[in-house]
Structure formats: structure tokens, C-alpha cells
Amino acid sequence: MANRTSGLQKSFVIHAVVYAVVVGGLVVLNQRVSPDRDWSLIVAWGWGIGLAAHGAVWLLYGRGKP
What we know:
By secondary structure, the protein is an all-alpha fold. 83% of the residues lie in helices and 0% in strands. Helix 1 packs antiparallel against helix 2. The protein starts with a helix and ends with a helix.
């Protein structure tokens, strides 16, 4: 159980870091290329839903009682 918990936590942290780096880069790119349209927010919203689901799985199953 401990291995599964640490694996879920590690995968969630990696997912969150990659999300932050990519979305941050897209926001910068969006502001430089087309500041009149906020298309990067669509990506942030969609990927954020997936990240939230990943976090919910970690909270519900990864932190369960042994």
C-alpha cells in the first residue's frame, strides 16, 4: 500500500509541475503572439480539469487507511 501511495503522490506532483511549466509558457506565448485573444486559458481550463481529477484520485485512493 505504501508503494502505491508514494507512486500516486509522485505522479500527481509530476503532473502538477508539468502543468505549471507548460501553461505558464503558453500564457507568455499567448501574450506575445496574440494578446487580444486569451486562448491559453482554454488549455489551462481543460488540462486543469484533468489535473483536478488526478488530485481527487490521489486524495481518495492514495491517502487511504492501510
